Amino acid sequence: MAAGHPATATVGRDILARGGSAADAVAAMILAGCVAETLFTGLGGGGFATVYDARTKSVHCLDFFVAVPGLDGTVPAAPRAIQVSFGDVEVPYAVGGPSVAVPGTPSGVAALHAAFGRLQWDEIVAPARDLAHDGVPFPLAHAQLLPDVAAAMVLGDGVATYTRPDGDGGRRHLGHGELLHHEGLAHTLDDYLQHGPEILTTGRRGRALVDAVWSDGGALSVADMAAYRVQELPVRHAEFGPGTICVRGNDLDHFAGTAAAVNRVLVGAGPVERARQLVAALRATALRAETTTVVAVDSEGNACAATHSLGLGSGVWTGGVHGNSMLGEGELLRGELRPGERMPSMMVPMVVCDDSGGLLVVAGAAGGSRIRPALLQVLTGVLIDGHGAAEAVAAPRLVATPDAVHLEPGYAPDVVRALTEDGEQVVQWPEQRPYFGGAAVIAHDGPAADPRRGGLALRLEA
């Protein structure tokens, strides 16, 4: 298994050690991430999961992403504009009750477990409940990111969660190694364990979130919560190297189509030509979306990948749960948003199968508009170049924005020279950074988690 946080990965390992399925492990890791990785995700968000069934060699894509509220006719007020940094660039966002969409994570975890799990429900929820009770050490990568997103995180209950007294009458941001603790979250997870997702949707905790959002000008209603359903999506297929990518096909960045197009030009291409082709295929606006991803394979060969997100967070809290800010994420607001419909997303957890339907790779990535380049470059390393998972994940990456090509350290001088001669503005970064996306992958040689996110990969020995 691999995840973006050591505590999340450890929960997955323990679930597999108890005889849980890959889906059990991912369900438990999603919940653990909702405790340990709350700069990226939470019970108030949503996501997607892709499951590979080794017995039937079938693939299933579950959609538990957020939905547009307003089924009762409520029209939201204008959200509150904030500024968060994106490297050296200030990016506008919006928070508050009007930014909160209908959450899907509580229902999604339950649906994933019900369809593909084999452990008891309490075994899935208890590890996250225990993390919430004890608190989790704040990783270095998160401590470095917090100042960039503090405008969204250090609001409401987030003040007590993400800051500490500085000794001079003010407050400072939570530091590396300090305990991240969300007051009330353990009790919320206890209720979730006892009563299932309904307690967080139409039950008293769900109604408490609705009330908090409504009182802050949002459109979320009990009707929206009651109408929400986890959906199974059609699987899109794309040839890539010796395998076939199996992924949902309705993502914002058209991952499957990009993969199929790139596949035809990458095989046999040298470093310079490959860089040029990737720039041409992957050019996109650099947009921010905070996400996290987990992957697992069990002893029977079943696999599961999930990517889930909170956006940046709305500043609306209840019971230790931070309401998502998806309606304040400008990159997701494309076209008309109708109440009850899903919001669009770039998240694409996936599996890759061989010609006989056997499993080759299970993978996911976090990072908004960098999900697509991160996954395509990692899959190129594994499936086309024959590298191991860890080597492919750690390899230098590029990101092509409309006005520049960003390169991590490690690209040969002739690649830099060729791109410059092509008229590109080449930005060479001094070190690997989360900007380039965070991947989690399991391939023929085992699992790998992205060092850019401070993740952890674990292998359960027989």
Please tell me about this protein's structure.
The strands form seven sheets. The protein has a seven-stranded antiparallel beta sheet with strand order 10-3-2-14-13-1-24, with helices on one face. A six-stranded antiparallel beta sheet has the order 11-12-17-18-22-23. Helix content is 34%, strand content 24%. The longest helix has 15 residues, at 22-36. It contains 15 helices and 24 strands. The protein has 462 residues and is an alpha+beta fold. It has one domain: Gamma-glutamyltranspeptidase, small (S) subunit (Glutamine Phosphoribosylpyrophosphate, subunit 1, domain 1, 4-Layer Sandwich).
CATH top level? Answer: Alpha Beta
Task: Provide the structure class.
Answer: alpha+beta
Mean pLDDT: 93
Number of helices: 15
Strands of the widest sheet, in order across it, are 10-3-2-14-13-1-24
CATH topology: Glutamine Phosphoribosylpyrophosphate, subunit 1, domain 1
Number of strands: 24
Largest sheet: 7 strands, antiparallel
By CATH's scheme, which homologous superfamily applies?
Gamma-glutamyltranspeptidase, small (S) subunit
The amount of helix comes to 25-40%
Task: For the record, give the distance between the C-alpha atoms at the N and C termini, rounded to a whole number.
Answer: 14 Å
Entry keywords:
462 residues; alpha+beta; Glutamine Phosphoribosylpyrophosphate, subunit 1, domain 1; 15 helices
Quick gist of this model?
It is built from 15 helices and 24 strands. With 462 residues, the protein is an alpha+beta fold. The protein has a single domain (2-457), classed as Gamma-glutamyltranspeptidase, small (S) subunit (Glutamine Phosphoribosylpyrophosphate, subunit 1, domain 1, 4-Layer Sandwich).
